[in-house]
Amino acid sequence: MMKRGILAATALLASLFASQRPAEAGATLDAVRARGQLVCGVHTGIAGFALPDARGVWQGLDVDLCRGLAVALFNDPNKVRFQPLSSSTRFTALGSGEIDVLFRTSTHTMLRDATLGLRAITPYFYDGHGFMVRAGAGIAKASEMAGATICLIQGTTNEQVTADYFRSQNLAFTPVLFERTDQAAGALQNNRCDSFGTDASQLAATRASMPNPSDWTILPERFSKEPYGPYVRRGDDEWFDLVRWYVNALIEAEEQGVTAANVEEMKRSSVNPNTRRLLGVTPELGQALKLDPAWAANVVKAMGNYGEMYERSMGPKTAVGLPRGVNDLWTKGGLLYALPMR
């Protein structure tokens, strides 16, 4: 009887653990392949990251990352549907299955990663909270904004960062919350706010889109760490791994000097074992992710490496005009560092 009791207790515990297991691994990849299209959550509209051009074609770093993932899956950058999402709806849309992956200026934080039923994967862009004010306001630093009215985007880390800063300085301020960046920018220009508080890259993008960019100053201080990265649903390790190593492959390609222009030549002639693995000359990386052996080579050929994506969307020759800075490779003083792909 004791033996039967132990067996019964063991079975009960096993059933309890089984009920707590995450969703079956592979569900997202299988669904995407069956659909024949990736559904990618992006910003509702911010220059440099995700914004439709004059023809209605989405452009930007996040957009290119979505297209590149479609190449890894289907060898076709057009097999992706973009779902514009606000800051307050992005995580709900991912959790409900409305989208497959979120590439949307989303900061990795502990509480988001641990409490939302989602997984933050790996940073691809490093930023920090800042403030933009009128150039003629005579404001040189944030501590001079006592009593200011500040435009903020609802559902972002910027709400808390702003409140924490003013509280720490024992300064009063009045927040005015908006659903979208363009609404906050319009309010700022119409004198409803004294300042706009958000990440510096988005301030630069907002300023570039204004009729007279020189009328606005982005204060030099940064008040937070804002590493952007993709999010996926918790419980699908296969999909998590695929997206993580896809992002790493873009950085690894830049580290190895593989570009859209030379990828085919390097695939034919390189004797570097790391390059041969990355480009699928030896097939083990593709096999590990259930992808074509040449998946990374296909991505770089179609979209470029990480540096090419950055320069096309965010670099000094664009309207946003951001130098690489911390978003450069670790070998050049930046923070981007690909995990070993072997």
From TrEMBL:
The lineage of its organism: Bacteria, Pseudomonadati, Pseudomonadota, Alphaproteobacteria, Acetobacterales. It comes from Teichococcus vastitatis. Residues 37-266 form the Solute-binding protein family 3/N-terminal domain. Pfam families: SBP_bac_3. Belongs to the bacterial solute-binding protein 3 family. The keyword Transport applies. Residues 1-23 form the signal peptide. Gene3D superfamilies: Periplasmic binding protein-like II. This is Amino acid ABC transporter substrate-binding protein. InterPro entries: Bact_solute-bind_prot3, SBP_3_CS, Solute-binding_3/MltF_N. CDD domains: PBP2_BztA (cd13692). Keywords: Signal, Transport.
